[in-house]
Amino acid sequence: MEKAARHSLGRYWDEITNEAKNDLTEYLCLNIPDKYKKWNKYTNEGREIIEQIVVPKVKEYLIKHEVTLDILNTVK
Predict the structure, then answer these.
(1) Which of 5, 10, 33, 71 has its CA 20 to 30 A from that of 16?
(2) pTM (two decimals)
């Protein structure tokens, strides 16, 4: 977990995540355009679930194992 935290704070993290987002957007647009049009709806619904269920559990785990919360902040 510490290794993941260190990498998430690296100088290339934003570049890597932005590239992955762009690749996903392009794939959805070209291969499943009907679902791509509903993408914002899906992500908003997913965001609510993640914030309510996943984030508290991850935060608890990080605190318990004395790992910096920075890694959690990078994926929000």
Answers:
(1) 33
(2) 0.53
